[in-house]
Write a structure and sequence with these properties.
By secondary structure, the protein is α/β, with parallel strands linked by helices. 28% of the residues lie in helices and 23% in strands. The protein starts with 23 loop residues before the first strand and ends in an 11-residue tail after the last strand.
């Protein structure tokens, strides 16, 4: 079951300057599950037409039309008159932050409730209250958007975000925004890998996509779940279940060489959709790169997760990190030194300064020497960058210079084999 109200749709209305993201919009229903010969709990549609509380004077004090956070998601329909003592058992607030409205859900419980600011809750007068939740819970379908940018290879990088949390800016919209900009940026580039972007409801969306695409998941070589990338918290990386996949190494290298403060979390089976992609039957190389993580910033799942928390500069910095990781994946290749017996003369090839070296020039020359020494057909450029503790971009530039000088030959990868699960 999943809440996907009538207002939820996988159609993007982008401004004129934006790319058209919706390459495919899928609607998955029980009918498809029957065709596929699968079983599932089913997709339940939760539609809210109206919801409010009127106080004893008849004044509407809580109104779904003003904030959809006011209603506990997936609430059953109700129309009743209750004394304050009984109504209080259905109200949710945050005493520590008396002006914020919490976000609460009840996907699998047959119940109803309202969320409101604690200050408002505490000020409610005694008397009889009218409560209305005009909702419908019925069998429905699940929609998601999928965009594929083909590359030179059919091997894929999977980038996934969730679209199901209402009115939450960091824990929902920031991932959508960053993924949109990634599509725009990568669409303008030549691509070694193919890139698959998923805009899906959390949990059931990834489960559905995996069930629908099980025959093709072996193409996924790297993956990231994108969430909580718009606040000012330090960068946090949650590793894939494998723990040492190339995507884990690429992200950790980028963070180690571009940030002074970041956190690395080992995989654990809770969180966002990485736990579905990393379930033992798939064990895909998918991690999650965020800033503050779920439940670890005070605004999480509250009305304070808004545009005061999420800032353009923070989103831009997150986009920069994602693009740096993609650069590593795209440029990580294996080379062979064409003159492996002792160091070749670099000066006459214009690769070495004639008199000494300092600063960036010296760093570039050391990168050249590292690449020459470890380009033995066994080490990729990421291996070299890790061992040399040099930013990958410096190693990649050195490799390009050496290749142009005829000192390196790229070793083509072997034919693709199924991913080891």
């Amino acid at each position: 079951m999943f809440v996907a109200g009538e207002g939820y749709s996988a159609v993007f209305h982008a401004p004129p300057q934006s790319v058209d993201l919706v390459a495919k919009v899928r609607e998955v229903s029980d009918a498809w599950l029957q065709i596929a010969g699968r079983r599932e709990r089913g997709f339940t549609l939760g539609e809210f037409r109206d919801a409010y509380i009127r106080d004893p004077s008849g004044t509407k004090i809580v109104d779904f039309a003003r904030s959809n956070l006011h209603v506990v998601s997936y609430s059953q329909p109700v129309h009743a008159r209750l004394p304050l003592s009984e109504l209080r058992t259905r109200l949710h607030s945050i005493p520590e932050h008396p002006e914020w409205i919490p976000y609460r859900t009840s996907y699998y419980n047959e119940t109803w409730g309202f969320c409101l600011a604690h200050a408002q809750r505490e000020a409610l007068p005694d008397g009889e209250y009218e409560v209305v939740i005009d909702s419908t819970l019925a069998d429905g379908h699940l929609s998601y958007a999928e965009c594929l940018l083909p590359g030179e290879s059919t091997d894929e990088v999977l980038l996934s975000c969730h679209v199901c949390h209402p009115s939450l800016c960091n824990d929902n919209l920031s991932g959508i925004a960053l993924l949109t900009e990634l599509v725009r940026a990568l669409q303008a580039r030549s691509r070694r890998y193919s890139y698959r972007f998923l805009f899906i409801p959390g949990t059931i969306g990834s489960i559905t996509w995996l069930a629908h695409n099980e025959q093709n998941v072996d193409r996924i070589r790297h993956g990231l779940v994108v969430t909580c990338v718009g606040d000012g918290g330090r960068f946090t990386y949650k590793k894939s279940r494998r723990g040492n996949a190339d995507i884990d190494r690429a992200v950790l290298h980028v963070l180690a060489t571009t940030t002074d403060d970041h956190e690395v979390i080992e995989f654990y089976p809770y969180g966002y959709d990485e736990r579905q992609y990393c379930s033992p039957g798939f064990n895909l190389p998918v991690g999650s790169l965020s800033r503050s993580t779920h439940g670890r910033f005070v605004e999480y799942h509250t009305s304070a997760d808004d545009l005061h928390l999420v800032q353009p500069a923070f989103l831009a910095e997150s986009l920069e990190k994602y693009l740096a990781v993609i650069d590593v994946l795209e440029q990580d290749r294996v080379y062979v030194n064409t003159q492996p017996k002792c160091e070749p003369q670099l000066g006459r090839r214009g690769l070495y300064r004639a008199i000494g070296a300092a600063g960036n020039a010296r760093a570039h020359e050391m990168a050249l020497l590292w690449v020459l020494n470890l380009s033995d057909g066994q080490h990729g450029l990421l291996d070299i960058a890790e061992r040399a503790r040099v930013p990958f971009s410096d190693i990649a530039r050195a490799a390009e210079a050496l290749q142009q000088a005829g000192l390196l030959l790229e070793q083509k990868p072997k034919a693709t084999t199924p991913v080891d699960r």
